[in-house]
Design a protein that fits this description.
Chain lengths: 771, 279
């Protein structure tokens, strides 16, 4: 029997009640008392290093491991042939997509080690295990690999041209998959009626997540069963992928995750190094540890974005949108993972028409293979790309049609009377007050007082600009979570959740929810995550933890009271209907006969009460909002200084105000990073990663950010889940990218520039100013 | 097994150096990142225990900055406006933790084209004091750094101090840096300038640009052109593109040659304007 779809329950709306509660995990995390994978060591553990291809495309003609094998301390040297001889498979990717001719998505198999041909710089070619890390590193230098270098292609626009070097024999023309949406004929008809057509080509550049904590895996094989200590946002998914690689039931694996030093989507799914450590632990019969150095983190963790768009927007004489025609070209990298394809082919299109009424769309998106690291999830995952394109189009249309850009947005926003609103891409928005968010942001940022600030900046020799973005997010991927609750005889309430904390404050939010349902002190609550022997679920992706995981916690709390009521009725020899629950005690209404939760647990077999609850929100949610950015440009050097960023968001009900503000701030910071600073650059000829360190890849720092003003409107609760929450993890990033770019373009308006590609470095600005 | 020596006396350090093939370690802020996670393969001479090498002293005609003086020591020292450029540069070396460990002389010996300390010290006409078992000598900083990560220091030699001569007139200095972000990043352009002045006129000028050539360079034609000019907020206008002729900026992922050249000129002008505007 499938669980009934959950609807918003107004009596849940008080949970958290937007209270500001200091994060329970901060004392531990800020004082260095966290427990990360690299903090763990096991007796008798050996160390693994991964030898990676120095070439973007090369046949590994021969590997001579004699010297490495006999080096001091070396226990084993493996290449892909050794793994397949032992029956080790590849990491599967979901068979969701097709090519234009109907054949399945084509891509090289994700083997743990390159299978005869290395396909990107950093592709694992061999694994070496030794008694110590230093011995393994030394042995890596002794491994003689005879590479036969082959031509490579880095830019997806070049990869799909005839004659380009091919990544995979299965993917002719380097096209891995293709998806079409909308109605081409209707769009052609609409364009024929257009008074104006705005055209734009743009690139969402490739980004590197740069989590503070490098990836690390520690594997142990005992009594026929593996334990893998690693960092993943999806412990259960990681376990299941391991089972597929080793062709065993998932129960053969226990995946344990402690604290995570930043995920941002990059720590989803299974990485080859995790599986290699498991292979090594079984093969050698002792624990094996691997830890990436910073350079490996740059080369070989999933990167973000890298999508090219070509779009045309048709408008009527009043600036009302008639149709959108667009083509997307996503760079999957050479050995794509599931999210390489899901993000551009599904997640981006979900929000492509954003907050505007776009009657018809013709959308074709293709995924290309290139000799680069795979792209995957990175904060926003498809939604920043889609929103950025739509906002750039509407802003450009306003300039071309000489209509105020705020006014043009108003003319096209979906109005409150249109909900539930079905987009031409087939998504249904349950609710939204888009214009109220727009007005809120404009007022909070004193949009109308800008002229005086621009004048004042001009007297200081600075070019001041303001930028606006209105946007929507989609959250709630895979909308089911199961939560178990155990009440012990000492009154401890343990909550088991398959979602995964990675610094976003889930422990605090969950404790707030459960203490309010059960009306017990926070000190009595323990949250257990990150152990597939104790809790399973989809994990923490797509801003779903509070929305789906939080709803499941409240449901499990209520189930605890329901079960407790039955047990209390037996204990107090009363009818369950006469039992009321208050502040941790069950009482026969109107009497002084009562029993506490702990005492009730103590009376049960096993001295505990255990319940389970599964929640399935009825549909995704649609957080939305508006952001305004003001900044100043130094015309002589092109340097940009952010002056302020103001956000006004509808993310539904807020559980903990301080945590939500922090999520928005962090999201904005990563959006600003994309707009102004960050880009992964591969050399077009050699395929070498030129931005392979923090010296070359510019991650912004705190001193580059102004105060951010975050505002929220909680009056539009999300009706698709118990709590009325919508999700807040990614919306800051989605809004900041277009708001910042628009502010730069506005500051540069005297120079008549129609578009600048990100990141907008000082040099790009200076080139425009210098003419 | 490599040897590790941490003597307390300079003479002992020079004896260690005499044996050859020894890497000198002071703050370690360049050494450790370059050797992270790798075992030690060469002999190390750690000079951080030699007390006489640390600190700034005021001599009759010069200041002496000992070799193990850290950037934080320098920031906190009471020094005249002549040192403003060096102090500003010190505040932008890495972050505070780096400033607490890294040394001024180490920055010169590491000789990165983007070393923050070199342009201000060039603009101070600094000299480097070098000691060896055979005695000690002074060499102008301009001659000390000879290329990308190359100095004239010979085997057996140790830089013991940086000597800054006292100027003849009142002097002030200033430093500006352009990078993709403020801290912990390799500079695109750095400019340091010292102006000696009297009676509202420039009497002498020293201007150095870093990160635009393998070794930071003085702009001597510009320095000559400034002598006798009025000291005011329009001083920068005297700087011309032709004055940048000693520079040879590179093209890389951080910035193009053209941008570095233009940004260098803008920063030189701004540095001079700001020096001229101080009343």
């Amino acid at each position: 029997m499938s669980a009934p779809a959950v609807q918003f329950d107004p009596s849940s709306a008080r949970f958290g009640s937007s209270r500001t509660q200091k994060r329970l995990e901060d004392d531990r995390l800020l004082a260095g008392n966290g427990l990360y994978s690299d903090d763990r060591n096991l007796p008798n553990q050996a160390w693994m290093v991964v030898v990676r291809s120095p070439y973007a495309h090369a046949r590994t003609a021969s590997v001579n491991a004699d010297a490495a094998r006999t080096a001091t301390g070396v226990l084993a040297v493996w290449t892909s042939g050794d793994l397949s001889a032992d029956g080790v498979g590849h990491i599967p990717i979901p068979p969701l997509f097709k090519r234009a001719d109907g054949s399945p998505m084509a891509a090289p198999l994700r083997t743990l080690l390159a299978d005869g041909t290395a396909l990107y710089v950093g592709h694992p070619v061999a694994a070496i295990v030794a008694q110590t890390q230093v011995q393994a590193q030394d042995a890596a230098e002794l491994l003689e690999i005879d590479y036969e270098e082959l031509p490579c292609v880095i830019d997806p626009r070049k990869a799909i041209l005839p004659g380009a070097p091919q990544v995979s024999a299965q993917a002719a023309g380097n096209i891995s998959a293709e998806q079409r949406y909308g109605d081409a004929a209707a769009v052609t008809a609409a364009f024929a009626q257009a008074a104006h057509v705005t055209r734009l080509e743009l690139h969402n550049q490739r980004l590197i997540a740069t989590a503070l904590e490098p990836r690390c895996a520690l594997a142990q094989f005992e009594a026929g069963r593996w334990t893998l200590y690693t960092q993943t946002q999806q412990p259960t998914g990681t376990r299941d992928a391991l089972a597929a690689v080793f062709n065993t039931p998932p129960q053969q694996f226990r995946v344990v995750v402690g604290d995570i030093g930043g995920g941002f989507g990059m720590k989803t799914g299974l990485y080859p190094e995790d599986a290699l450590a498991c292979y090594a632990a079984r093969k050698l019969g002792r624990p094996v540890k691997w830890r990436a150095d910073r350079s490996e983190e740059f080369l070989a963790t999933h990167m973000g974005r890298d999508q090219h768009f070509k779009a045309e927007l048709a408008l009527d004489p009043k600036g009302r949108i008639l149709a959108l025609r667009m083509e997307g070209l996503a760079n999957f990298g050479s050995v794509p993972v599931g999210s390489s394809a899901i993000i551009p082919l599904v997640l981006g299109p979900k929000v492509q028409t954003t907050v505007y009424h776009v009657p018809v769309i013709d959308y074709r998106v293709r995924g290309a293979l290139t000799h680069t690291m795979a792209t995957g999830a990175y904060r926003g995952a498809g939604r920043p790309e889609g929103n950025y394109l739509m906002e750039r189009l509407i802003e450009k249309a306003a300039h071309e049609m000489k209509i105020d850009s705020v006014e043009l947005r108003r003319r096209n926003l979906i109005q409150p009377g249109q909900f539930p609103y079905r987009t031409h891409l087939g998504e249904t928005y349950d609710a939204g007050e888009f214009e109220r968010m727009l007005d809120g942001a404009l007022a909070a940022a004193d949009w109308n007082g800008f002229a005086a600030r621009r004048e004042e900046a001009k007297r200081r020799g600075k070019l001041r600009g303001r930028g606006l973005a209105v946007y929507i997010e989609w959250t709630g991927a895979l909308p089911t979570e199961t939560v178990d609750i155990r009440v012990d005889a000492d009154g401890t309430v343990t909550v088991f959740s398959g979602t995964q904390a990675m610094g976003q404050g889930l422990e605090t939010s969950y404790v707030q929810l459960i203490t309010e349902v059960l009306q017990i002190p926070a000190g009595k609550v323990k949250i257990v995550q990150g152990d597939t022997d104790q809790a399973n679920g989809t994990g923490s992706v797509g801003s779903r933890s509070a929305f789906v995981g939080g709803s499941a916690i409240v449901a499990a709390g209520r189930e605890t009271i329901a079960r407790g009521t039955e047990l209390a009725a037996q204990a107090l020899e009363s009818a369950a209907t006469d039992i009321e629950y208050l502040n941790g005690r069950f009482r026969i209404a109107g009497t002084d006969r009562s029993i506490g939760l702990a005492e009730l647990a103590a009376r049960q077999a096993g001295r505990q009460i255990r319940v389970t609850a599964t929640e399935t929100p009825s549909s995704p949610s649609w957080p939305n909002g508006a952001q305004v950015c003001e900044l100043e440009i130094d015309p002589e050097t092109g340097e940009i200084e952010l002056v302020n960023v103001t956000s006004f968001d509808d993310i539904g009900r807020i559980i903990n105000h301080m945590i939500v503000e922090g999520q928005i701030h962090g999201g904005i910071a990563q959006g600003v990073g994309q707009a102004l600073y960050e880009q992964a650059i591969y050399d077009a000829e050699s395929g070498q990663l030129l931005t392979g360190s923090l010296m070359d890849y510019c991650v912004p720092r705190a001193d580059q950010f102004p105060q951010m003003a975050t505002h929220f409107d909680e009056s539009v609760p999300c009706r698709t889940n118990l709590l009325g929450v919508k999700g807040c993890g990614e919306i800051g990033t989605i809004g900041a990218v277009p708001a910042v770019v628009h502010a730069v373009l506005d500051a540069l308006s005297p120079y008549g520039v129609a578009h600048i590609e990100m990141p907008i470095t000082a040099e790009k600005v200076w080139r425009i100013v210098a003419g | 097994m490599p040897a590790y020596a941490r003597p307390a006396r300079l003479e002992d350090a020079l004896q260690v150096l005499k044996r050859g093939n020894t890497t000198i370690l002071a703050g370690g802020t360049d050494y450790y990142p370059a050797h992270a996670d790798k075992p030690l393969r060469e002999d190390i001479l750690d000079i951080s225990a030699i007390r006489g090498l640390r600190g700034i002293s005021d001599g009759r005609d010069h200041w002496r900055i000992g070799a193990t003086t850290t950037w934080t020591d320098l920031i906190e020292a009471k020094l005249p406006p002549l040192f403003d450029a060096l102090r500003l540069a010190a505040r932008e070396v890495g972050g505070v933790q780096i400033q607490n460990r890294g040394t001024v002389a180490g920055n010169l010996c590491n000789a990165s084209p983007a070393a923050d300390g070199i342009p201000p010290l060039l603009a101070l006409d600094a000299q480097v004091e070098i000691a060896s078992d055979a005695g000690s000598r002074l060499i102008a900083l301009e001659q000390f750094v000879v290329g990308n990560r190359r100095t004239v220091l010979g085997s057996g030699e140790l830089a013991t101090a940086v000597i800054v001569p006292k100027p003849k007139c009142n002097a002030r200095s200033h430093f500006l840096k352009l990078g993709t972000r403020k801290y912990l990043v390799i500079s695109i352009v750095m400019v340091a300038a010292t102006i000696e002045h009297a009676g509202g006129k420039v009497r002498a000028a020293r201007i150095a640009v870093g990160a635009c050539s393998p070794v930071a360079r003085r702009l001597k034609k510009l320095e000559a052109a400034l002598v006798g000019e009025q000291l005011d907020a329009a001083l920068g206008a005297k700087a011309l593109a032709s004055h940048l002729q000693p520079l040879s900026p590179i093209d890389d992922v951080r910035a193009s040659r053209g941008y570095r050249t233009e940004a260098a000129l803008a920063l030189v002008r701004r540095t001079l304007d700001q020096l001229g505007a101080i009343t």
